[in-house]
Amino acid sequence: MDTSGPDGRDLDARGLAELDARVTGCRACPRLVAWREEVARTKRAAFAGQTYWGRPVPGFGPADASLLIVGLAPAAHGGNRTGRMFTGDRSGDVLYAALHDLGLASRGTSVSADDGLELYGVRVTSPVHCAPPANKPTPEERDTCRPWLVRELELLRPSLRAVVVLGAFGWQAALPAFAAAGWAVPRPRPVFAHGARVTLGPDSVASQSMSMRPVESESMSIGPVVPEPIGPVELFGCFHVSQRNTFTGRLTPAMLREVLGTAAQAAGLTTRPYAG
Length: 276
Description:
It is built from nine helices and eight strands. By secondary structure, the chain is an alpha/beta fold. A six-stranded mixed beta sheet has the order 2-1-3-8-5-4, sandwiched between helices. The protein has a two-stranded antiparallel ribbon with strand order 6-7.
């Protein structure tokens, strides 16, 4: 496994599976590497008998997803423990229950990477793939991790129609990634709000120039871009499914299902009615 960062040159042919494999070997941010591995060694008492994943957590869901959900970063004892996005923590309990109610997931719980959960037309990812101390990545860590999200967006281009971004941090991280992946982001950049909806059309100038160079940051390169056709994407804002938001009622089950249902419709996915 390559552990130096996203520097492969053959991702175009191998697609998302290869991208996900390379994500798990990234060691580009020393603070995040130290923290995720320390948490995996010391563990939480409730999970003392378990082997923690302790690595970057890749995206989860089909490679032809038309709806993408963008979070913040893996939880120290959630995704950092289980190795799957929003799996093993209460935020995931809320998110996957909502997706299941809408008919977009095979089950309403997500407890381990081998529990059989499947997503239908939906993929889940985050702008930062390592668990950060206090759930707060630095701006530098966010920017260093951005090429992974840019590549993921590029590989999803043929099918992607809608995106739900959970929280202001994810929104701020996603907009530059969409611009780098070839979509036109309005200026001034749209402000995050729950229920916000923005249409991102293709940026023909940006996508043409990108097809001639690798996606890279100061510390990593992910190889040349495949010039895929870019269609419009509907971008939706939603409060994050954090315990703080769900316990205080800032984000209710009905609010979450309304945003997810509207986004699924924009993505061309069939949902089932939710009785509440």
